[in-house]
Amino acid sequence: MVDSTEKKETIMKKGNESSSQNGGVEYRRAKGWRIAFSCSSSGLMGMTFYILMGYASYVANVGYGIATAVVGFILTATRILDGVTDPIVAFLIDKTKLKAGKIRLWAFLGWVIESLAVFMMYVWASGKGHGVPFFIVTYCVYVIGYTMVNIINQTIPHALTNDPKQRPMVGIWSTVFNYFVPMFLSMAIMMFILPRYGEFNVPMLGATCKLCVAVSFVGLIITIIGISPYDKLEYIGAPVKKESVKLRDMVSLFKSNKALQMFIVAGASDKIAQQTISQSIITTLLYGIILGNMQISTMLSVVSMLPSIVFAIIGAKHAGKHGNKESTVVWTRACMIVAAVSVVFFSVLSRKPQIILQKMPLMIVFVILNFALNGCKMSVTTANNAMMADVIDYEFDRSGNLMPATVTGTYAFIDKLVSSFGALIATSSVAILGYTATMPQPGDAYTMGIFWFTMAIYYGLPLVGWACTLVAMKFSPLSKEEMVEVQKRIAERKGDR
Known about the structure:
The protein is mostly helical. The protein is built from 20 helices and two strands. The chain has two domains: 31-236, MFS general substrate transporter like domains (Growth Hormone, Chain: A), CATH 1.20.1250; 250-496, MFS general substrate transporter like domains (Growth Hormone, Chain: A, Up-down Bundle).
């Protein structure tokens, strides 16, 4: 035991980390700047490709001559592949047992595959007479690389720290990067690249691709620098079981891990609601028809960034003090209260809701409610992101297998499967209002039917999702007290090996 202790102390020095002790458990804590560098992966690597692939329909049309309707079908169909690849790639990542770690390796491989795929799609093959099959193949290759990077991004917080006070703060940096990187990148594309070429043509899309890949490469380097001390078995841990992860372990994970089951119920119910209300047709109903000003939606999105980040910091502090489960419950209840107040506010003014943006006091109330709801949602997201690491530790304690990628991959598979129904729910629902041949347009005639339908979808559907979250958290074993015991048992098992 003396040798083991001495080894642990040496590792801590090499890892550039500090430690904290609470409840008889010694936790490792990562340096702040390394957390910032490591979490840049989600923004500088993940979101740059996300922004780029937002132009996939354009490159398919102008670069490969694919009709718009066909493009939509192709991009929707590939989401199935995206979901299927998650557990497969996750299984392969967890099978990788290198003393030097695997986060950097898989992040690099994923980035290389993504970069080669988009360069082929946007630069090398675009406008060269290739058709549908070539576009589909390159897009599928991109999906494989994207899956690698995405799963690695979700495992990084677990590798950085096991301190319950620090884990929620890890998500703050991801939030910052995920907010600001797309904003500045989109501005660069719209203000500099598009005006230079005048339209969305092959050269313009090629230049956009080069910019996005360059930014993502910077993110890769920064991520590698930040995560290097923690990308080792000494930090991410080795399984108590000596054998490698097997397929039956994945089945057992889904069937027996109650924490993961409840986490999926909470996450999926919220996600399908958020995916539905984020559809442009629902946004059009609320802002373009009920409020009569479509532009206010974009303005609120930009202005609410700073308050949302402030709420994320507050939420992280709360989660660190009370636990991720309790914080999820508190902020979910806050979401429900604000949403209910918003419905009452709109209902009082339902005869002429356009007056909300015409009278300053009413506009102030609306903006405050909007900021409060977005902020509470952000706090829930912060707690949920930290809870994923708790689920990974819970599985380690339950089965003896440390499978961070498999846990996140299983969740991602179901999450993507569920979220894909968001567009279907939105488009099917508006048909009830009579939009069968056309979509809602800003300036369409306002009716009470549109009002109550929009209230039911925009606020009512999330309320159902939040209610499901509260029920799931009631049965979740991931209390603050239980996670302390989990960390104690994990430490004991590691010490006995």
